[in-house]
Predict the structure.
Amino acid sequence: MTELEKGAIAQAVREDAQAVYKRAQAVPEIGPKMADLLVAYLNQLGVEYVFGVPGGAIEPLYDALARSERRGGVRAVVAPRKMPANKQATVWSLRSIGRRQKI
């Protein structure tokens, strides 16, 4: 590969990285209104529990879940880390459909 080809590839990679960065900046943050809409949709679907780890950008969603829980809707089950939340959700789903399976 010639130096010219290597330079062209490097330039293309830089341009792709800049384009990805610009698209990421354009994504709107989840705000209180969007979080409330999402929780309302989960209520319509009949979802009882949401498993996860609160904090950071997802905090408006957990605020909406807390309001929902006070009204008797979707409840948040908080885990200390991501992996326990994943395991909790898996066990809950298997038990809720009546299957007893060792995980």
User: Anything to note?
Assistant: The chain has two domains: 1-28, 32-96. Residues 51 and 88 are 7 Å apart (CA to CA).
